[in-house]
Design a protein that fits this description.
single chain, about 70% helix, about 0% strand, mainly alpha, about 260 residues
Length: about 260
Amino acid sequence: MPNSATTSIPFRVWKFGIAVYVLSRILVLLGLGVVAVARTQEDARNGLPRLSTLHHIRETLVSWDGFWYLEIASSGYPSNIPANVTYFMLEARAAFFPGFPMIIRIADAVLPWGQPEAALIANIVLGATAVLAVGALAYRLHGERAATLSMAIFSMFPGSFALSMAYSEALMITFSALALLLLLDERWLLAGLAGAIATMTRPNALAIGLACLAAAWVHRQRIRAVIGAGFSAVCTGAGFVVSQLVIAGTAKEAGAW
């Protein structure tokens, strides 16, 4: 069994991960196609303009949370949040963290098709990196069979549809898995940076901080390792704090999130 995150992983493992991810995305696309055709037919029955199937697929992929991430990427966070804010008000975007909107802006600066398309392309790539990162972590812990099974289960899990949408899960999972890999290799600074990116993306990534503390406990007989793991935990928590400061600073309201 490999004993280092830097151990060379056989190319066949990476190839399997990419193949199963591509297959899973094709299945997601087929499912979206069925929904889109149904919506096109429903529009026709209701006398609405007949929009293409591709239009309905695109609109589905950037809906719900994706709408709010795109709103943050284009307009930033709200400068004021009403006391009775609901999900259906534009100010509701304050509930979402800044990590993925930053990726959307970067992708939009490079790609020529607009923010929705940039978000979807970025997330398709991040979905692949998430699958491979999960596989690398499994390979590091339990070898090749665990890696291939982990990537297959992760790619085909029903909730993995989010990897095709303008959602933040792929970014968070990529850097969470990377942080865990780096913790195993005792690369404390890089683990902390990866953890910070994860917690700037989604609040549930704070669990990485607990992993850092667990690493400190495991290495409790080695003071330098304890300090390093503690530093990783602080960096991981800092990503969450930065997100809070960004949201609260824009809204001019402490604890706005």
